[in-house]
């Protein structure tokens, strides 16, 4: 069984508009993978195809050797539990406390109330919010809300974390702290993080691989080393375009090269 997300000739139309046009690429599991593109490029549609919130018109999404469009409803529910999701606007329930928000997936999965408390406390520690269980979401900053969103997404111990513009509503410093938290969680928990973004800086900071979409078509995809080895590739150009964070990015890229050498 291959440990991989394989996106194969995916097509999705809304009326006469193609949101995805013959998109194929692979995401190696156990890494952070960025899906890049401008507004309307098809990123959210693609992300929603990964957990079948969206049904493609043609093509397949194969996860660990399994075509997810062929799963029964029961299998799909199990597969979805493997996929935590975080959102640009956090999607917290404001009439529930932080602890109750995080406990929600556990409640749905039938974890007894007595066990939920300890798990919520462990998750709060994991995201740097110890002692926040009884606080209301409205009392939190944007970065703290996203930390709650991340804790909730991780509650059912998923293998994948899907991030839909997770830092787009945050200021630059908070963005960096959330990206670094995602990178640290990916290492600690050995999960696969798929994030969509329109910001190259996000890819530079934490991604091990990326795909670039434009008007529903795939322009390029690959690991960071494959991207950097392609002298005429658009992604390489974009990665090296602005000077900001370049030194840190190149150091990280070189470290990755040493690891595979
Ligand atoms: N439910 C829908 N009904 C009709 N058109 C849709 C729907 N969802 C997406 N689209 C269209 O499909 C195209 C791709 O949208 P999508 O949301 O996947 O892009 P995106 O790259 O995520 O953009 P953004 O960053 O703005 O969210 C856009 O032209 C969008 O208007």
Strand content: 15-25%
How many E-type strands? 10
The shape, in one word, is globular
Beginning-to-end CA distance, first to last residue:
25 Å
Work out the radius of gyration.
18 Å
> Low-confidence parts, pLDDT < 50 over ≥5 residues?
none
* Total number of domains: 1
GO biological process, one term: amino acid transport
GO molecular function: ATP binding; ATP hydrolysis activity
Keywords: Amino-acid transport, ATP-binding, Cell membrane, Hydrolase, Membrane, Nucleotide-binding, Translocase, Transport
Main location: membrane
Describe the structure.
This protein is of the alpha/beta class and 261 residues long. The chain has a single domain, classed as 3-Layer(aba) Sandwich (Rossmann fold), CATH 3.40.50. Helices cover 41% and strands 25% of the residues. It is built from ten helices and ten strands. The protein has helices spanning 43-50, 73-81, 98-108, 113-126, 142-154, 172-189, 200-206, 224-228, 234-241, 246-260, and strands at 4-14, 17-28, 32-36, 58-63, 66-67, 83-87, 160-164, 192-197, 209-214, 217-223. It has a six-stranded mixed β-sheet, with helices on both faces. It has a four-stranded antiparallel β-sheet with strand order 2-1-4-5, with helices on one face. Strand 9 and strand 10 form a beta hairpin. Helix 5 (142-154) runs parallel beside helix 6. The longest helix has 18 residues, at 172-189. The two termini are 25 Å apart. 36% of the residues are buried.
């Amino acid at each position: 069984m291959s440990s991989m997300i394989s996106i194969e000739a995916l097509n999705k139309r809304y009326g006469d508009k193609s949101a995805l046009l013959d998109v194929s690429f692979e995401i190696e599991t156990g890494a952070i993978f960025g899906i890049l593109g401008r507004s309307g490029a098809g990123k959210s549609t693609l992300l929603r195809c990964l957990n079948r919130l969206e049904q493609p018109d043609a093509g397949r999404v194969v996860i660990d050797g399994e075509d997810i469009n062929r799963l029964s409803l029961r299998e799909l529910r199990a597969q979805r539990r493997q996929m935590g999701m975080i959102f640009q606007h956090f999607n917290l329930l404001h009439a529930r406390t932080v602890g109750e928000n995080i406990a929600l997936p556990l409640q749905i999965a039938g974890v007894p109330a007595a066990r939920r408390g300890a798990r919520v406390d462990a998750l709060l520690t994991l995201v740097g919010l110890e002692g926040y269980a009884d606080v209301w979401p409205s009392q939190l900053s944007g970065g703290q809300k996203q930390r709650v969103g991340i804790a909730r997404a991780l509650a059912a111990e998923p293998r994948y974390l899907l991030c839909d513009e997770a830092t787009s509503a945050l200021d630059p410093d908070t963005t960096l702290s959330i990206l670094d938290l995602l990178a640290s969680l990916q290492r600690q928990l050995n999960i696969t993080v798929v994030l969509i973004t329109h910001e190259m800086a996000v890819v530079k900071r934490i991604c091990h691989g990326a795909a670039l979409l434009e008007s529903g078509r795939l322009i390029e995809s690959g690991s960071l080393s494959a991207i950097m080895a392609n002298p005429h590739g658009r992604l390489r150009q974009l990665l090296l375009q602005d000077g900001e964070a370049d030194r840190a990015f190149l150091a990280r890229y070189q470290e990755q090269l040493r690891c595979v050498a």
